[in-house]
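Submission sheet (multi-component)
Chains listed below:
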Amino acid sequence: MRRARVIPVLLIQKGGLVKSVKFKDHKYVGDPINAVKIFNEKEVDEIVVVDISASAEKRPPNFKQAKEIASEAFMPLGYGGGISKLDEIKELIEGGVEKVILNTSAFTNPGLVHEGAKYIGSQSMVVSIDVKKDFWGKYKVFVQNGAKNTGIDPVTFARQMENAGAGEIFLNAIDKDGTFSGYDTALIKLISASVNIPVVAIGGAGSVNDFLQALESGASAVSAGSLFVFQRPHRAVLISYPSQAELKEKVYSQLND
Amino acid sequence: MITIVDYGVGNLASIRNMLKKIGHDSLISSREADILEASKLILPGVGAFDTCSEKLRNSGLIQPVNKKVLDDKLPILGICVGCQLLLEGSEEGQLPGLGWIKGKTVKFKQADLPEGTKIPHMGWTDVSLARQSVLFEDMYPDPRFYFVHSYYPNPLAESDVLVYAQYGYRFVAGVERGNIAGVQFHPEKSHKFGMKLLSNFANHF
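Outcome: structure written.
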């Protein structure tokens, strides 16, 4: 039986765990360390933590928090946000982070992807590509947490990142973020057919059934934020993750070996 | 004390974190004395085979590690490229491994994999035991582990195989010979399954 990774993404803003819709309307939902502990108990395949305020505030990653999270993560941990130097990549890896995720700096400085991959290995060098349709309905790569349109076509950018040494692409459909309306399967097909490295789909997952669609479209793994983390009025953050039995029944058993 | 051999590669903090979680102190060290005094050794490794082989050689630790493992029969667990180093060499490079287990590390054969299968193999995969081992004593049902690799150990003797896994075809995911064991996957990133394996290594191996 082939398994595919199902990866919760946690967004951090000003030290707190937040949720967003289409990269906007960020709402505080709780403490990130606590969320990682709960995901740990649920035996998630992998976890991704992105500090979305770091780049905007032009500050380096919060190493202390990253290390604290790493010491609670007994699964692979990807960390992104504010990373712009090789030394920062090294420090995160030495702190117990498994994969370092570049977004804005992969665009402004593709050489960092190359340097990073050389030092920590491609398998640990991830580039997150945020994609949105422009006014004319064309896919474009956005950076700075979706604030800036680079004008670049995602296929070109994904290939460039693969050539630079990225070992994996996190493909984020901005317009799908937080909408529970299903993945952008057209975008997933487009990118995964253009590169040989694994593509992880993010944005729009509304149920476990959506995972299968993304995987059948060529994604190697699937990711979601809102689906796994939600908040009830007057209650603490509520975290869910599908059971192994549910994943086997609805996803793995449907995949070709 | 378990010594995690630090020869300049890999994510060593994760191994120490998990050992700590299951109640075992460990030392990340590149000092010869810490290897000679260790109760057990863990040999990590990530990245290219030749880089690991060269760094291990340059660390000057091969001699003390050889002495402890071969003469004193100290238990050792290799992880990922650390497991590949237990064999004689690798298709990936020219440099030798430690040669404690006969055979070579080989690459996934793209031609034998279903079309569209990506290399590296990255993700969780179920493993099946090739034989009894204390490392898998009281293991949880349906053990699965986190893998990230393009190469796997291919020992000459089937009796040296510990576990198999499936990725397109069956491959060797772990080796064991006497006091020497190695796993291609990452127990330190594999939840309760990895905790059980590391705890069996620390307590019983």
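Remark: Residues 110-120 of chain A form the longest helix (11 residues).
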